[in-house]
Amino acid sequence: MEWATAIGLKIIAALIILIVGYWISRIVKKILTKILRKRNIEGVIVSFVSSLAYIALMTFVIIAAISELGIQTVSFVAVLGAVGLAIGLALQGSLSNFASGFLLIIFRPFKEGDYIEAAGTAGTVEEIRIFTTSLATPDNKKVIIPNSKLTDDNIINYTAKKTRRFQLIVGVSYSADLDKTRSALQSVIDRNDQILKDPPSMIAVKELAESSVNFVVRVWAKSEDYGDIYFGLAEAVKKQLDSEGISIPFPQRDLHIYEHKGE
After folding, report:
1. In terms of Cα–Cα distance, which of 88, 154, 96 is closest to 130?
2. Which of 9, 102, 159, 215 is most buried, by the most CB atoms less than 10 A from its CB?
3. How far is 116 from 20, CA to CA, in rounded Å?
């Protein structure tokens, strides 16, 4: 009877530990889920973190219940640790991608729809997943990049800011009138409604090159209008200079647009 009573009490204590531990684990999971959702964390991250916390708490509860029955848990914990280490080594690459995806979703260096350059690829972000991120290149190719490569490299976000500066170098002949050239360039800027008035544009002589006098034209535009200005401003400048008889040296090696990675 004494032995049965002792065993019975241990079983009851273990059951109480399991029931109370299960109840507390559920409450912690709900509270953690609410906190993460209030902070606008992605649903995938919320589900994973809350489930991970729940599993960790339940593991501790089960070990505590087993220990209450008088069973030695040292070897059991050691086995769990060895299994966890083996799984971690086997999934090292995947875990690295997962951790990187977690950081990307939490800190948001870019979002879906942004045009970025990272990991040797430039494109529009289509989808950010927990292991990979999908980009659509300007020629409509889908590129899937492991998240660990994104966090290990520089990320250039071309659409993070509302405005961007565009720079054009225009070379004219040494015989060209500088004031007339500046006026012609200004007229092109004034006719373009996509060019912002604030910040103000800038037209200045940049250098006296070997075969031309080089003007630098710097204008600002909304990020979504950058592509139109990129492809249209050089043509408009050429037509305006031709209409006013301002010569551009030929062959023209100094008329160019600074390298552009956007669409």
Report:
1. 96
2. 215
3. 50
